[in-house]
Design a protein that fits this description.
Blueprint: H1 3-15, E1 31-36, E2 53-58, H2 65-78, E3 82-88, H3 98-109, H4 125-137, E4 147-154, E5 159-163
Parallel strand pairs: 1-2, 1-3, 3-4
Antiparallel strand pairs: 4-5
The structure holds zinc ion.
InterPro entries: Carbonic_anhydrase, Carbonic_anhydrase_sf
Keywords: Metal-binding, Zinc
GO molecular function: carbonate dehydratase activity; zinc ion binding
Length: about 160
C-alpha cells in the first residue's frame, strides 16, 4: 500500500474518536518552534504534545522569508510569545556546498530549475543557529515582542544544547 493510502486509512480510524472541542488553533504553551524537517526531531523528542506548539519546518530550520511569515502569524494572530530555533547535527545541508547541491540535483533532474532555489547549505551548526536567530531579531515585527533562543539537537544523544546568541 502507498504511504498516502496508509495515512488515509489511519486518518479514517482517528476521525472516529476526533472531538473538535478538544483542540484549539492557539498553541497551549504559546510556543513556536522553527526547526529542520529531519525525521529525528519529533514532538516526543521535545516533550511536546499535539496542540502545545507551532512547528515551522523546512530543510535546515532556516529563518527564510516564508518561515518569518509563519512566525509573524504565529505571534500576532495565534498568541505565541517564545520562539525556539533548532538546527541539528548530521543535517543534510552540512554535507555539500550550495553549488554541489545545485550541480547534483540539476544533473539528476536532467534540466535546470525554472525558478531560483537557495538551499542554505552550511558547515558550522552553531554559527548557523546564531545566523537564524539574528535573522529573526532583525525583523522589526519580532524584535522586542518575542523571546528567541537557539539550540542544536544532537542526533547522537537526542539532547538539545543551547547556542548562546
Ligand atoms: Zn536537517
Amino acid at each position: 500500500m502507498s504511504a498516502i493510502n496508509r495515512v488515509l486509512e489511519a486518518n479514517h480510524k482517528n476521525s472516529l474518536h476526533y472531538d473538535p472541542r478538544e483542540v484549539s488553533p492557539h498553541p497551549r504553551m504559546a510556543l513556536a518552534v522553527l526547526t529542520c524537517m529531519d525525521t529525528r526531531i519529533s514532538l516526543p523528542a521535545l516533550g511536546l504534545k499535539v496542540g502545545d506548539a507551532h512547528m515551522i519546518r523546512n530543510a535546515g530550520g532556516i529563518a527564510t522569508d516564508d518561515a518569518i511569515r509563519s512566525l509573524v502569524v504565529s505571534h500576532y494572530l495565534l498568541g505565541t510569545n517564545e520562539i525556539m530555533v533548532i538546527n541539528h547535527t548530521d543535517c543534510g545541508l552540512m554535507k555539500a556546498s550550495e553549488s554541489d547541491l545545485h550541480h547534483k540535483i540539476s544533473t539528476e533532474a536532467g534540466k535546470p530549475a525554472n525558478a531560483s532555489v537557495k538551499f542554505h547549505a552550511f558547515h558550522d551548526v552553531n554559527a548557523n543557529v546564531r545566523e537564524q536567530i539574528e535573522q529573526l531579531y532583525a525583523h522589526t515585527w519580532l524584535k522586542g515582542r518575542v523571546k528567541i533562543r537557539g539550540f542544536v539537537f544532537e542526533v547522537e544523544t537526542g539532547r538539545l544544547r543551547e547556542v548562546p546568541r
